[in-house]
Amino acid sequence: MSSPAEVAAAAATAPRPLLVAVDVDGTLSLIVSHPADAVLVPGAGEALARVAALDGVTVAVVSGRPLHELRDQFGFRPDTRLIGSHGLEDSSVTTAHLSPAEEARMEALRAELNAMAAGVPGAWVEDKPLSEVLHVRGATEAAGDALLAEAGLRDQPGLSLVPGQRGLEVAVRSASKRPAVERLRAQTGAATVMYVGDDMTDETVLVGLRPPDIGVKVGDLPSVAPYRLDGPADVVQMLEELAHLLSGVSR
Q: Which of 83, 130, 169, 203 has a Cα-to-Cα distance from 69 of 20 to 30 A?
């Protein structure tokens, strides 16, 4: 594991403008069985705000969650740039809407996933505006793995599959955090991107970073990131240290 101070020092000495992009679940909040129960760990919102207030720094939250949950559930500041639904929603633009054909596809997908989940105790389906998520965290490991590995969905053209920790998100549009972060890079003119995330969906971003970018993996899943933090509390400590370093305040 890296120390929060080590990661903060790397970001503080990197070329600016600096884009700090951070995931939510498992990164700013603890992983819980039901997404609706998640909250930011103490100090997370305040630390993000302090970093965002610095000259030459842009902060963005990049999540698989829909925008309405990022706004309503976690209480991010109104001026925080939010990227939801794995890049399909952006708080700076009009929320994406499904076409009639996509709506019909979503309805069929929802029914199919619910039928699959009904046969596995502990599995359930989460409805999102642009996707459906099959969760198996409450199922036994063997039953959950078998359900996630079921090949039926993979044979359907036009679906975007986004594997997660004990879950599978299925969207009717291509979804990936990586192009969303690259758009942020271009829009902000960032010389350095710092990306912090814990999930397999974050690995798509981490693998695309290039020097002098800074990749940070949270937790113990395999990763290409050169830095690794233990959990959300360390992420908050790192952000607080970064704010002090960039503002010239020493402890």
A: 203
Buried b (16+ CB within 10 A) or exposed e, 101-126: ebeebbeebeebbeebbeebeebbbb
User: Which superfamily does CATH assign the domain made up of 4-95+176-247 to?
Assistant: HAD superfamily/HAD-like (3.40.50.1000)
193 vs 190: CA distance, rounded Å? 7
Whether pTM exceeds 0.70:
yes
Structural class in CATH, domain 100-171: alpha beta
